[in-house]
Design brief:
Elements lengths: L45 H9 L9 H12 L23 E6 L5 E2 L2 E2 L5 H19 L3 E7 L3 H10 L6 E4 L2 H16 L1
Parallel strand pairs: 1-4, 4-5
Antiparallel strand pairs: 2-3
Helix pairs in contact: 2-3
């Protein structure tokens, strides 16, 4: 988990302090980030991205609000210099449009490494934090696309609300629909 106070859940404030971005193996938490957790800087290197993605595995629970926050941090000018590579452009510079794509099953159920089920209080809290983050991103002019991959009904509602508008939400139930969603988003962005 990210070492930030939960009051910063919808903030783009850059990290601070020596431990700000370190993962922990705090055994008092039921679900902790692996010590090898890292972010891949923005790149056009498809081979490097494919290699990175092939190394991922599934499992565990979902702190969806953190996924939304990290997506925002990747495009935020406040985080310039954190990731390496080219710094994110400023907001509203007249030349750049920022986009975030969130693809998930939409079942956000974990906060602070703790989950009490898909419909418990941590699920409600994670969903509320994610919605606040989506609203904050949109207020900065970021266009938010969401893709629900095999998402149940309630999760689709949350993802549709997170998207910049209903046309920016995609419902994908299989690999072909997922590819079609990404292709449609890429076409809209390139236009």
């Amino acid at each position: 988990y990210e070492r930030r106070d939960l009051s910063q859940h919808n903030s783009e404030a850059a990290p601070y302090g020596a431990l700000a971005l370190k993962a922990t193996s705090d055994l008092s938490r039921p679900a902790a980030c692996p010590s090898s957790a890292r972010v891949t800087a923005m790149t056009n290197d498809k081979s490097a991205l494919r290699t990175e993605i092939r190394g991922w595995s599934t499992g565990g629970s979902t702190a969806g609000h953190l996924g939304a926050a990290w997506a925002w941090h990747l495009v935020s000018p406040e985080w310039a210099g954190i990731w390496g590579g080219k710094a994110p452009a400023p907001y509203n510079d007249g030349r750049t449009q920022k986009y975030v794509i969130l693809m998930t099953d939409g079942i956000y159920n974990t906060v602070g490494g703790t989950s009490n089920g898909d419909y418990g209080s941590t699920a409600t809290q994670s969903q509320d934090y994610a919605q606040a983050t989506c609203s904050a991103m949109k207020s900065k002019g970021i266009v938010v696309f969401t893709i629900g991959f095999q998402a149940p009904g309630a999760a689709k509602t949350g993802l549709r609300s997170c998207a910049s508008d209903s046309s920016k939400f995609y419902d994908a139930n299989d690999a072909d629909m997922l590819k079609s969603a990404f292709k449609a988003i890429a076409t809209e962005i390139s236009n």
